[in-house]
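hiii so my PI (J.) wants the whole complex modelled not just the main chain, which honestly fair. so below is everything: three entries, each one labled with what it is. i double checked the lines twice but i was tired so who knows lol
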Amino acid sequence: MEDEVRLMKGNEAVAHAAIRYGVDGYFGYPITPQSEILETLEELMPWETTGMVVLQAESEVAAINMVYGGAATGKACMTSSSSPGVSLKQEGISYIAAGELPALIINCMRGGPGLGTIQPSQADYFQATKGGGHGDYHLIVLAPASVQEMADFVALGFDLAFKYRNPVMMLADGVVGQMMEKVVLPPQRPRRTDEEIARQCPWAVTGRTGMRKPNVMTTLELDPVAMEKNNLRLQDTYRRIAENEVRFEEHGTEDCDYLIVAFGSVARICQKAMEDARAEGLKVGILRPITLWPFPYDEVKRLSKKVKSILVVELNAGQMIEDVRLSLEDRVPVHHFGRMGGIVMDPSEVLGALKNIIEKRQS
Amino acid sequence: MKEEIIIAGFGGQGVLSMGKILAYAGLMDNLEVTWMPAYGPEQRGGTANVTVILSDQPISSPVLNTYDTAVILNQQSLDKFESKVKPGGTLIYDPYSIHHAPTRTDINIYPVEAMEATFELSSSKAYNMVLLGSLLKVRGLLPVEAVMKGLKKTLPERHHHLLPINKQAILKGMELV
Amino acid sequence: MTPEEIKQSANIVETKPRLLNDNTMHYCPGCSHGVVHKLIAEVIEEMGAEEIAIGVAPVGCAVMAYNYIDVDWIEAAHGRAPAIATAAKRLNPSKLVFTYQGDGDLAAIGTAETIHAANRGENIAIIFINNGIYGMTGGQMAPTTLEGQVTSTTPYGRRVELNGYPLKISEILAMLDGTCYVTRQSVHSAAAVRKAKKAIRKAFENSLSGFGTSVVEIVSTCSSGWKMSPVKSNQWMEEHMFAKYPVGDLKDSPVKP
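here's the output for the full assembly
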């Protein structure tokens, strides 16, 4: 039963994976297109089995602060939302990053700005990878491209969050959240005991067990020298993450003349465009960054040395393209193709954009 | 084997659930599947459509611009998707709510009087199953037993008494084409 | 006498609680925070609860409460303490979880978190310092500022047609089914201090018994913000604050839901 292949939506897979990972607390507020995460958790009633706490908060603001409070006690806590709701969470996310607390935040992106649309988008790339809230901090950002990855990145996200004491964001979108695919769910793990938490998280605010020194989770530091030290410590964490945790996937890059860089569900669409292009004799390859932060700068640079041009495909007006350009030092022409406002490009549009570039190059 | 299918009609006609049953049936038959709905308020009476891909290979894009097969339940969907059926592909539609019949000559077109059949079966909820039956017959995608297993998976247990009428509807749909 | 001679045990008539450490408090002379801190430390100590106590500090003058009371603390974002306490308590049900919040934190920016935590009946205790002004940022209007009261953002006095009415948030919280104990106290006299301590103890015990949310409002002074001497502040509080915010229990129904 444990390894059973199931058919479900990405959002549902997140809920199942969270229970099976042994997550301690989920706090969320409904918003399309990710409400199935909270709905599925409420339906599965994990408090009866693993003891996981599931709570519908009064707002996204409250939900992220519940995550902050739970994480401060050493528990594995998560929240999920979609773009407008994630904007509301940014204050709390900044506190969680400053507090060096492990937590998982899921953004199932929809089109913006403003209330925008409930349809898929990737327009929160900047927000997720370049800050979002105030202060010099980074989230580890994972971009799933399948229902299986939505499930798998729950575990990966928490593992990384606890390893580096840094919040992780799963930057999904309406396509992977809403589509159903096959998924193999991981086996059920027990939740950590209080003793295990005390060992793993000696900083956790749990009450002064054994009259140890008080643990205080605060992000306030009025002494500028000490505050700079805090910032330097954070930067050191980010350096270690950037050195060790860059993840990406490639298709057809061994022999490609043209490189597509795309993340999340769009990478899947581009893969189909690549198949069609190759059927027409165009040697196209795909690089799919899996970690958007840290971004695979070195890999883009390496591939850029063998291709004629690069097409960055995104569901936005051009955000990840800035990181691609940063990798290249202007060696190779970089182009952007995007759709916005909830319109998802189809593979033929990507192929069309690619052919445009090739024609322009030749003329 | 790879079949790229669009099912389109009004919300409430069972478009999404028909796709879901097809996807589950694919799963039962050990195929790779994706089920990608046009989600949102469309579910509340507007147009609804779902893309289902069945394949014996891993599936890349869940979003498509052309389809092997279209199952069409209303005029708007016919207007939108007739041109997107690949040459040599299949279009199944119910003439009940269609005023302008499809005109393409390079695809295989099957009108299925599904609404009429549902009146005979006296179960309006089995409407989508009649069309699913026709799809299965025309395309020979999956054995009926896999579909019945898929149906059992998607229906909550309290509705399992409806399984026989659904099977009847599928068989009726197979008979109609 | 030298300080050493004064400290001889024969001369000691009162000691501070062990959990109140020796750090110099940043509070102004005459401020109520110091007294309330001491009461919380005493109550936790007397309950033997220091190994299970988790405090949630606000943004406001008490932002660094964790520097003075030696229990575990989480410092919250402005107004969010009840949300943080909600999760801390739900994930650690055997712990004593309390928030310590001022009027701006609890009744302005954090109103939603306060009301919803109380309405869910979270098993937490909320200690609410109401001094009718924003002390930390330099004396601006609070939701509880009295009509006509001069602050740096109401230099001609609070006008209800502009700024609305002083918010009696404890009365609102007492109406919610999730609260089991809502009381208003003060710490301006020895008798008041004794009563306030009893109230804090009851609130903490309620939260451990799972009776729901307890709220202890402490009508307090802010000599700096009010621009009065400590003695004058106490007088002004009795004359003006108590008229709008009368002390006493608003609700006391400790029953398990």
